[in-house]
Design goal:
single chain, about 475 residues, mainly beta, Porin, 16-stranded antiparallel beta barrel, six-stranded mixed sheet, 2 helices, globular, signal
Length: about 475
């Protein structure tokens, strides 16, 4: 009897412990409801996280109208107790836009758009912080250090694949602030998960075969570092509706990836392709041996209050925000995709089953960036114009071997946005936006006796937010 009472007491204590921990925390629910109405001149996905299909591709060159509320988001902010002299906070955010991940990963031109009735919950952020007066330790999934300067457009993820490195990633991050002159400098360092593989684990589950990406793995964590300087030198201007001073930052990321050798299957159809005159030529393709490749990205940005204010009144203010980068193998930041972020540099072979083309794997090098100009007519009405570009360089078409039949490398991708915003009260915000997107390809392709090496999309978008 005493033994049973002791067990019951221990169970009761165990149940009380987590309740007491929750009792020390303060939970706040937040987020917004977002309604989007979109008309596109071609078939593209909602967030434009893809390349545009060629203008002579009849499968995708027709208009489409969509209504959706799947980008509605909710979040919890949790304020915890003090620990080691630091304040503790947590943040979890989710939305209902997760069905588009298949198009995000493949970058398929003309990628589809699932019905709003098939919307799926997707985890956006899940992290916690310990904050001391000048130091912060963060753990969990949050924006990359190189993705915190997002343009303010009606289409979220603006300039992704066209100038804006865009990524939420699981990470361990530490930041240290220093007072320098009239402003402050913040140095940050993070270890994060490479998005196209796990440490020492294979992607897609097989060790070898005709699919080159089944032989891919990340050998190191992603190492990310950034230095940012903020100073109120002549006043502030708006950034996402809040006054912000002059700021400049420089950052970079690196991780190492391994590709194991894959071999063409003589019994299968030709598994790769090479550049031709007006079209690709199918060929049997294989890599020469195992290789280690270094993914890297260096970027910098600057925010300039052009017409500043010294109060919270934003009327009549103007700002300029620009970010530029250069790197290699940028599928890890949605500035390229797995099928086009690397290729085989020709070494030997004839491209037939008995003698496949052999090559050494290379990462595609790209540079890009965007510019945003914003002006506030009043505290309720404002506008912004954004242009972004992503361009490949150093690609030798004579030595490129496309190692899948889906490989269709993109030379340049550009986004143009013009948005008019109206926010009558803090809880409501409306936007009307025109977008032009153009994708230029390296290779012309013949379809129905027509040749096209670029694709275009025009978009009109209206959105409404209700914040809570």
């Amino acid at each position: 009897m005493k033994k049973r009472m002791f067990i019951a007491l221990m169970v009761a204590v165990g149940m009380m412990l987590p309740l007491s921990a929750f009792g020390a925390a303060d939970f706040t629910l937040g987020g917004y409801i977002k309604m989007e109405t979109i008309w596109d001149s071609t078939q593209v996905n909602k967030n434009l996280l893809q390349f545009i299909s060629r203008n002579n591709d009849a499968n995708f060159q027709h208009g489409r109208l969509k209504f959706t509320a799947e980008n509605t988001r909710m979040n919890f902010t949790i304020k915890g107790p003090k620990l080691w002299g630091a304040t503790t906070t947590g943040f979890i955010e989710w939305d209902f836009d997760n069905h588009s991940n298949e198009y995000i990963m493949t970058g398929t031109p003309g990628g589809g758009w699932a019905s709003p009735h098939k919307a799926r919950i997707g985890l956006r952020h899940a992290m916690f912080r310990l904050n001391w007066p000048e130091t912060e330790l963060m753990m969990g999934q949050y924006w990359s250090l190189l993705t915190e300067e997002v343009p303010e457009t009606a289409n979220f993820g603006a300039c992704t694949t066209a100038g804006q490195p865009f990524l939420r990633e699981p990470q361990i991050r530490i930041s240290q602030m220093f007072g320098i002159g009239p402003g402050k400098m913040t140095a940050s360092f993070a270890l994060a998960q490479p998005t196209n593989g796990l440490w020492g684990l294979q992607v897609n589950g097989t060790q070898a075969g005709t699919n080159p990406y089944s032989c891919e793995s990340s050998e190191t964590p992603k190492i990310v570092a950034r230095v940012k300087y903020d100073a109120d030198l002549w006043g502030k201007a708006a950034f996402w509706g809040a006054p912000r001073p002059f700021s400049v930052r420089v950052g970079g990321a690196w991780w190492r990836e391994r590709f194991r050798r894959f071999a063409a299957d003589p019994a299968a159809a030709a598994n790769g392709q090479v550049f031709g005159n007006n079209n690709f030529t199918a060929a049997y393709v294989s890599s020469r041996d195992q290789q280690y490749l270094n993914h890297w990205l260096v970027e910098g940005s600057v925010f300039i209050p052009v017409i500043p204010t010294t109060t919270k009144n934003l009327a009549g203010t103007a700002s300029l925000l620009t970010q530029w980068w250069v790197g290699a193998g940028l599928d890890g930041y949605f500035e390229d995709f797995a099928t086009t972020a690397s290729y085989l540099n020709y070494v030997s072979g004839a491209g037939v089953a008995a003698n496949p083309l052999i090559g050494d794997r290379q990462l595609v090098q790209r540079f890009g960036g965007y510019v945003q100009a914003q002006y506030y007519f009043t505290n309720q009405w404002y506008t912004n114009i954004v242009w972004g570009i992503n361009r490949a360089f150093g690609v030798d078409q004579d030595r490129w071997i496309g190692d899948t039949t889906a490989n269709d490398p993109v030379k340049t991708n550009q986004h143009y946005y013009a948005t008019l915003w109206y926010q009558p009260i803090k809880a409501l915000k409306f936007g009307l936006e025109y977008t032009y997107v153009r994708t230029d390809y390296f290779q012309k392709r013949t379809t129905n006796s027509q040749i096209s090496d670029y694709g275009e999309n025009h978009r009109m978008m209206f959105c409404g937010f209700f914040y809570f």
